Amino acid sequence: MKKFAIIADASCDVNEESQKELDIKIVKGHITLPDKTEVLTELNWGNSTREQFYKDLSKNPDGYTTAPPNISEFAAAFEESAKKGEDVLCITISGGISGAFNFATQAKEQVKKAYPNTEIIIIDSLRFSIGHGLLVILASKLREKGHSVDEVAAYIEENKNRVHQCGWLDDLSFVAKKGRLTHSKAFFGKLAGIKPIGEFDYNGLTTVIGKAKGAKKAYAVFLDYIENTIENPSEQTIFIAQTSRYNQAVKYREMIIERFKPKDVVIVDVYPFCGINIGPGLMAAYYVGKPISKGLEEERELVKKLIEAQG
Fold first, then answer.
1. What's the CA gap between 185 and 154, in Å, rounded?
2. Cα–Cα distance between 92 and 19 in angstroms, integer?
3. pLDDT in tens, 245-261
4. Does the predicted TM-score (pTM) go above 0.90?
5. Dihedral Cα 233, 239, 242, 243, nearest 10 deg
């Protein structure tokens, strides 16, 4: 079977250690800093820390901007693999919130002219951050088991709408301003004592499907929501992404382990490339479950019942 490379843009938040372990190649994006200098994205904290980055971001949220890898950068990554005789599976951030999918598709057309025998498959993950990353990791695991590039691509395409986000965004101003939130005009700033519960929609945007009063009720709703939507939890590694909510993520991890006994629950950072557009208020679990319904009608109704049950 022909070897193939798995490539993703830096929005997947798969850290450098996991990249090496899983043989995942990352195409870096671009960040413009408040002083107007541009840097390539790194999936690490470099000379800073998570806490310092989000502190600086909170002080100057409009001072940071991001841009996806361009056509030439995707093409260079594809050509590197083609030169080795490898096919390519590239999984990008949702096309609904970034131009990465379109740029990767154009890069594919360029590279195919020089390497017509190289198969290059581009998949729009319809997800971002570790929701995107979870699909990339699943692709790597399937490749490790001996599946072909076509088999892995078919699996990811068929199951990408099964990747759930279950958690809160307790400061919605960032995702609203950056276009990552549906009905964004209704959600600016913090809502005192309220934990907005977010889930992915069909376009890869976060949609608020309910609001719990206080962290205690929110955690209870989360666990019940996961129970009603997850499939085969004992066979999964569940990821918890957090942007400046590490202590809450630790508590959530303990609850998930006790309730569902999965293979593992891994707390992951949201690095600057995604963090700039999400802000410091995210704490959410990511897992594979039932297909998400169109318009999130079923998920909204479920959360409504779970919140009512909490009183």
1. 37
2. 15
3. 999 999 999 999 999 99
4. yes
5. -150
